[in-house]
From TrEMBL, chain A:
It is an enzyme of class 7 (translocase). It is a peripheral membrane protein. It catalyses: a quaternary ammonium(out) + ATP + H2O = a quaternary ammonium(in) + ADP + phosphate + H(+). Its main location: membrane. Belongs to the ABC transporter superfamily. It is found in: Cell inner membrane. It comes from Neptunicoccus cionae. SMART domains: AAA (SM00382). GO terms for biological process: amino acid transport; glycine betaine transport; response to osmotic stress. Keywords: ATP-binding, Cell inner membrane, Cell membrane, Membrane, Nucleotide-binding, Transport. Its EC number is 7.6.2.9. GO terms for cellular component: plasma membrane. This is Quaternary amine transport ATP-binding protein. One of its GO terms (molecular function) is ABC-type quaternary ammonium compound transporting activity.
From TrEMBL, chain B:
It is found in: Cell membrane. GO terms for biological process: choline transport; glycine betaine transport. This is ABC transporter permease. Keywords: Cell membrane, Membrane, Transmembrane, Transmembrane helix, Transport. GO terms for cellular component: ATP-binding cassette (ABC) transporter complex. InterPro entries: MetI-like (IPR000515), MetI-like_sf (IPR035906).
Length: 337, 660
C-alpha cells in the first residue's frame, strides 16, 4: 500500500452552542466540565486523523458519538469550530466557496444513510446529477451515468423513480451517483444502516467487489462493529466526540487502548479478526501438517489447523515466522483468548 | 372539598365570579359611583387613529411622491400590469378579440367556444389523474353551460386564472427569500400572522381607495389574500426537505442557486402543490367576495340576488359557485398528488396526445363556430333554469315550516344567544382588559398576558369595545355549537370507517366552498339577524372540529388501545379514558381552527345584519372610509390573535403533559 496521506485532520473541534468560537480561543484545551458550564456541546473534540491513499478508513461509534459530524467536518459540509483539515496537502478550511465547489465536483463523492436521492429524477438522472450541475452536455453525462448504473448492477432500471425501488436498490443509486465524477476520496456515511440485515450483508459484498475494482480512498462511517472489522483497513473508535483509538481491527481487539474500546471488542467474534501472525509462536518440533499465510484469519484456517495432528507453519513474505498450534486456535475459537 | 379546590380551580372560579358580578351590576355600579366611564369608554380618551389612517391614505393617493413618480402613478402601473393579461383572458373566454369600439368594432377572432372550454377541462382532468376525474370536471363545466351560468362563471374563472399564478409564484419567491434570509423571515412572520387574521373586508377598503372600483382592484385584493398561505407552505416545505438531500446537493458541487432550483424546490414540489391548491381555493373565495368592489361574475350574481331577496337566482348562482369550487379543487388536488410517469416515446403528436387533441378541438370549434353558432355560445333556448324550482321549494318550506323554524329560532335566541350577549356586553371595558390579561397570563405566561391586555386595550381605545364584545359573544356561541356538533361527528367518523368516509368527504367539500355560499340558505330560511349569522358561522366552522377530532382519535397509537383493551376497558371507557385524553392536543388544534374560521366568517355575516366589528368593517367599505375599516379590521385580527395564542398555549401545555 502506498502510504501517502491524502486527508488529514489536525486538532479538529466542532462545538455547538453560543459563542463556541470565542470559548475555544480562550480555553484551547478545555476540560470535560468546561464545555457543559459554557452551555456548549462537544460534537467533535480534538480529532486527529490521517487517512492514507487507497485505504478503507472506518470511523466507528454509537449514535451521538460524533462520527457523522466528524465526516461532515472532513467534507466541510459542517464548518469546524477549530482545527485544520488538509486535503492533498492544502487546508480545506481556507478554500473559498468557489474552490470548494470545484473540489467537490471533481474529487469527492459521498453516500448517505437515508440515500438522499432526488425524488423527481429517475435512476439515470440521479446518477447523472453531479455531472448535470457541472454543465456536462446531456449525451455525455447520461453515457457516464449509464456506466456507473451498470457498475452497481441496476441495468434495466434506469427509468425508475427512487420510490419505485427497494432500499438496497436505492442505495445502489446513491453509490452510483457518488461515483459518477470518479472521485479520489469517497465518503460513506452509514450507507447500509437503513437496510435489512440480509441486504446489508449483500451490499457489503458488493462494496468490497467495487473497491477491489476501483481502489478509492474511503472514509466509511458505521455504528456496527462487525461491519467495521469486515471492511476496514484501519478503524477509529469514537466516543463523546473524541477519538479513543485508531488501529487495525486486530490490534483493536488484542490491545484496546481504553476500557471503552475493550468493552466494545469483548463480544466480537475474535476468530474473524485475529490472524495467524498474532498466534505465531517459535517452532517447537519438526513435524508440520502444512503452511498458512500470516495474514489469514483464524476463522479461515481454524478448521484445518484444529483437525490436523501437527502444528502449521506461519509464512510471511516467503519466510516462515513461526508455528500455529491446535490449542492456540482452540483458545481463540472458544473465546479463551 | 379540600382536594377538589385546587389553586387552579380557585383562580378560574374566582375570575368567572368577579366577571359575572361586574357584568350583572355594571349599570348599578356606574349609577352608584356616578362614573359613566365604567360602562362606556370615554370619547375624549379615544385614539385619533381612524382619522390619521384616512388622512395618510388620502395623502398617499393625492400627493405622495416616490422619487420620480407619484404614488398614484405607481398604483396605476400595477393596475395596468394586471389589466392586460386579465383583459386578454376575458377576450379569450368571453368577449372575443375586437378592434375598435362600439358600433365600429370589428371582431378579429371569437372567444373560445363553450365546447372548447369543456374539452379543455376534460383534458386537464385526465392529465391530472384519470377518466373519472375528467368526467367530474367535464360535468361541472357542462353544468355551468347548461344551467345558464356560463357568462358569469367565465368572468370568475378569468379572475382566478390571473390571480393564481401571481399568488403562487409571488408566494414561492417570498417564501424562498424568507428561507434564505433569517432577518427577512423574522420580518415576514408577524405580517403573515396579521394577514391571515385580518378579515377580508378590511383588505378591500384600502385597496378600493388605492385602485378604485373594478375588476383590477378585486384582483389585487385576491392576490393579497391568497398569497400568505403559499408563503408559509413554501417556507415549511423547504425546511422539511431532508438535510441529507441538501448535503447530497452540496457534495455534488452545486452552487447556492443550483441547490435551490435543482435540489430543494423540486424535492419540495409535492408539498408546494398543496400550497397551490390552497391558493386556488382562496382565490376563488376572494374573487366571490371581491364582487363587492367590482369583480363581477358569480359573486356579483349572488350578492345582487341576496339584495333583491331573489331566492331562485341566488341559489342558482350559489350552486354554480359550488360546482366550480369542486371542479377546481379536485383537479388541483389531483395535480398535487400526481406522480411522475415515464414519458411515452414517439413524435410530438404521439408524445402529447392530449395537447394535440385540445388544440384540434379549439381550431375546429373556431371554424365550425362561424357556421353553427350553437357550438360557439351555448344556445339560450336549451338553457335549463332551476330558479323557479328553488323559489317554489323555498316558498313551500316557508309556508309549511315557518312556525317550526320560528320556534327554534326563538328558543335558541332566548335560551342561549341573548343571555350570553347580555353577559359579554355587560362586562365593563376596564375589567375586560384585565380579565383577558389574567386568562392569557395563567395559560401562556406573562408575555402573552401583557400582549393580550394591550390588544384588548387597543380595541377599547378605538371606541369599538361594545362591538368587539358582540363579535366575541357571537363567535363564542358559534364555536361552542360547532364543537358540540363537530366532535361527536368526528368521533363517529373515527370509530366507524364507513360513516367516516362519508362524513369526512362531506367536510372536505364543505371546506372548499367559498364562504359567501353559506349565507344563501341561511338567509332564505331564517332571514337576517344574529341567529342567521350564527347558523352560517357554525356551518362554515364545523369542518375543522370534525376533522381534527377524527384525526386525533385515529392517531392514537395502536399499542395504547391494545393496552387499554387488555386492561379490560369497555368501549366507552376506551373512548373516555384512553383515546380522548390522548387526542386532546389535536382536539385543541381543531378548536383553534374552528375559532379562526368562525371569526373570518363572522365578518362576512355582516351582510345579514349583525352589529359586531364585521358590520363596522362593512360600513367602512360602503363608505370607503379606510381609517374606520383598518382600525375595525385590526380589532378583529387582535381578537383572533389572542384566541389563537391562548388555544395554542393550551395545546402546547397538554402535549407537554402527555409527553408527546
Amino acid at each position: 500500500m502506498n502510504q501517502s496521506v491524502i486527508l488529514e485532520c489536525r486538532d479538529v473541534w466542532k462545538l455547538y452552542g453560543p459563542n463556541a468560537g470565542t470559548f475555544l480561543k480562550n480555553t484551547p484545551v478545555p476540560k470535560k466540565g468546561d464545555l457543559g458550564r459554557a452551555g456548549l456541546i462537544g460534537a467533535v473534540r480534538a480529532a486527529n486523523v490521517q487517512i492514507f491513499k487507497g485505504e478503507i478508513f472506518v470511523i466507528m461509534g454509537l449514535s451521538g458519538s460524533g462520527k457523522s459530524t466528524l465526516v461532515r467536518c472532513l467534507s466541510r459540509l459542517v464548518e469546524p469550530t477549530a482545527g485544520e483539515i488538509h486535503f492533498e496537502g492544502e487546508n480545506l478550511l481556507n478554500k473559498s466557496d468557489k474552490e470548494l465547489i470545484q473540489i467537490r465536483r471533481s474529487k469527492m463523492g459521498m453516500v448517505f444513510q437515508q440515500f438522499a436521492l432526488l425524488p423527481h429524477l429517475t435512476v439515470l438522472e440521479n446518477a447523472a446529477f453531479p455531472l448535470d450541475v457541472q454543465g456536462v452536455p446531456k449525451a455525455e453525462r447520461l453515457a457516464r451515468a449509464q456506466e456507473v448504473v451498470e457498475l452497481v448492477g441496476l441495468k434495466g432500471r434506469e427509468g425508475y423513480y427512487p420510490r419505485e425501488l427497494s432500499g438496497g436498490q436505492q442505495q445502489r443509486v446513491g453509490i452510483a451517483r457518488s461515483l459518477a465524477v470518479e472521485p479520489d476520496l469517497w465518503f460513506l456515511d452509514e450507507p447500509f444502516s437503513a437496510l435489512d440485515p440480509l441486504i446489508r450483508r449483500e451490499m457489503q459484498d458488493e462494496f468490497i467487489r467495487l473497491q477491489n475494482m476501483l481502489h478509492k480512498t474511503i472514509v466509511f462511517i458505521t455504528h456496527d462493529f462487525d461491519e467495521a472489522i469486515r471492511l476496514a483497513d484501519r478503524i477509529a473508535v469514537m466516543k463523546d466526540g473524541a477519538i479513543q483509538q485508531v488501529a487495525k481491527p486486530e490490534e483493536l481487539v488484542l490491545n484496546p487502548a481504553t476500557d471503552y474500546v475493550a468493552e466494545f471488542t469483548r463480544h466480537v467474534n475474535r476468530a474473524k479478526v485475529i490472524t495467524a501472525a498474532a498466534l505465531a509462536e517459535p517452532l517447537s518440533g519438526d513435524s508440520f501438517s502444512g503452511t498458512v499465510p500470516a495474514s489469514a484469519t483464524i476463522e479461515s484456517i481454524g478448521d484445518r489447523v484444529e483437525a490436523a495432528e501437527h502444528p502449521f507453519h506461519v509464512e510471511q513474505d516467503g519466510k516462515i515466522i513461526g508455528q500455529i498450534t491446535r490449542s492456540a486456535v482452540i483458545d481463540v475459537l472458544v473465546g479463551r483468548r | 372539598m379540600g382536594r377538589w379546590l385546587t389553586s387552579g380551580r380557585v383562580f378560574w372560579l374566582g375570575l368567572f365570579a368577579v366577571t359575572w358580578v361586574l357584568s350583572q351590576f355594571s349599570f348599578q355600579i356606574y349609577k352608584a359611583l356616578d362614573a359613566r366611564w365604567i360602562i362606556r369608554y370615554p370619547k375624549k380618551w379615544q385614539l385619533p387613529l381612524e382619522d390619521s389612517i384616512s388622512s395618510f391614505l388620502d395623502w398617499l393617493v393625492e400627493s405622495a411622491n416616490v422619487y420620480f413618480f407619484t404614488f398614484r402613478e405607481f398604483t396605476r402601473a400595477i393596475a395596468a400590469l394586471l389589466e392586460a393579461p386579465y383583459q386578454f383572458l376575458r377576450n379569450l373566454l368571453i368577449e372575443g378579440f375586437n378592434t375598435g369600439y362600439g358600433d365600429s368594432a370589428v371582431q378579429l377572432a371569437p372567444s373560445l367556444g363553450w365546447v372548447a372550454v369543456v374539452v379543455c377541462a376534460i383534458a386537464i382532468g385526465h392529465y391530472a389523474r384519470n377518466w373519472a376525474l375528467a368526467a367530474l370536471v367535464g360535468a361541472c363545466f357542462l353544468y355551468l353551460a347548461v344551467f345558464g351560468q356560463w357568462h358569469s362563471a367565465m368572468i370568475t374563472l378569468a379572475s382566478v386564472l390571473i390571480a393564481v399564478p401571481i399568488g403562487a409564484v409571488g408566494g414561492l419567491f417570498l417564501g424562498i427569500a424568507a428561507y434564505r434570509a433569517p432577518w427577512f423571515n423574522r420580518l415576514l412572520q408577524p405580517v403573515l400572522d396579521l394577514m391571515q387574521t385580518v378579515p377580508v373586508f378590511a383588505y378591500l377598503v384600502p385597496i378600493l381607495i388605492l385602485f378604485g372600483f373594478g375588476p383590477v382592484a378585486a384582483l389585487v385584493a385576491t392576490v393579497v389574500y391568497a398569497m400568505p398561505p403559499m408563503v408559509r407552505i413554501t417556507i415549511l416545505s423547504l425546511h422539511s426537505v431532508p438535510e441529507e438531500i441538501q448535503e447530497a446537493g452540496r457534495m455534488a458541487g452545486c452552487t447556492k442557486r443550483q441547490i435551490m432550483w435543482k435540489v430543494l424546490v423540486p424535492s419540495a414540489t409535492p408539498s408546494l402543490m398543496v400550497g397551490v391548491n390552497q391558493v386556488i381555493m382562496l382565490s376563488l373565495n376572494m374573487v366571490i367576495i371581491a364582487s363587492m368592489i367590482g369583480a363581477g361574475g358569480l359573486g356579483f350574481d349572488v350578492l345582487a340576488s341576496l339584495r333583491r331577496l331573489d331566492i331562485g337566482a341566488g341559489i342558482e348562482a350559489g350552486l354554480a359557485i359550488v360546482v366550480m369550487a369542486i371542479a377546481l379543487d379536485r383537479a388541483s388536488q389531483a395535480f398535487a398528488e400526481r406522480s411522475q410517469r415515464s414519458l411515452p416515446e414517439g413524435n410530438l403528436l404521439q408524445r402529447h396526445p392530449w395537447s394535440s387533441t385540445v388544440l384540434l378541438v379549439i381550431l375546429a370549434n373556431l371554424v365550425l363556430g362561424r357556421f353553427i353558432p350553437a357550438l360557439q355560445t351555448y344556445p339560450d333556448s336549451l338553457t335549463l333554469t332551476t330558479g323557479p324550482f328553488w323559489s317554489d321549494a323555498m316558498e313551500w318550506v316557508n309556508v309549511n315550516f315557518f312556525d317550526t323554524f320560528e320556534a327554534i329560532k326563538v328558543v335558541v335566541l332566548q335560551g342561549l344567544l341573548l343571555p350570553v350577549k347580555k353577559f359579554f356586553s355587560g362586562i365593563p371595558w376596564a375589567w375586560g382588559i384585565i380579565a383577558t390579561g389574567l386568562i392569557s397570563w395563567r395559560i401562556g405566561g406573562w408575555k402573552l398576558g401583557i400582549m393580550a391586555a394591550l390588544m384588548m386595550a387597543f380595541i377599547a381605545a378605538s371606541g369599538l369595545w361594545g362591538k368587539a364584545m358582540i363579535t366575541i359573544y357571537l363567535c363564542g356561541v358559534s364555536v361552542l355549537i360547532a364543537t358540540v356538533i363537530g366532535i361527536p361527528l368526528g368521533i363517529w367518523a373515527a370509530e366507524k370507517p364507513n360513516a367516516g368516509r362519508v362524513i369526512l368527504g362531506l367536510m372536505d367539500t364543505l371546506q372548499t366552498l367559498p364562504s359567501f355560499v353559506y349565507l344563501i340558505p341561511v338567509v332564505m330560511l331564517f332571514r337576517v339577524g344574529d341567529f342567521s349569522a350564527m347558523i352560517a358561522v357554525v356551518l362554515y366552522a364545523l369542518a375543522p372540529a370534525v376533522r381534527y377530532a377524527a384525526h386525533g382519535l385515529r392517531d392514537v397509537p395502536e399499542q395504547m388501545i391494545e393496552a387499554g383493551v387488555m386492561s379490560g376497558c369497555t368501549k366507552r371507557q376506551l373512548l373516555w379514558r384512553v383515546k380522548l385524553p390522548l387526542a386532546t392536543p389535536q382536539l385543541l388544534l381543531g378548536l383553534n381552527q374552528t375559532i379562526m374560521l368562525a371569526i373570518s366568517m363572522l365578518v362576512i355575516t355582516a351582510l345579514v345584519g349583525t352589529r359586531d366589528l364585521g358590520q363596522e368593517v362593512y360600513i367602512a367599505l360602503t363608505k370607503a372610509n379606510a381609517g374606520q375599516g383598518i382600525v375595525a379590521g385590526l380589532s378583529v385580527a387582535f381578537i383572533a390573535i389572542v384566541a389563537d395564542r391562548i388555544v395554542n398555549a393550551l395545546a402546547e401545555g397538554q402535549r407537554r403533559r402527555l409527553g408527546l
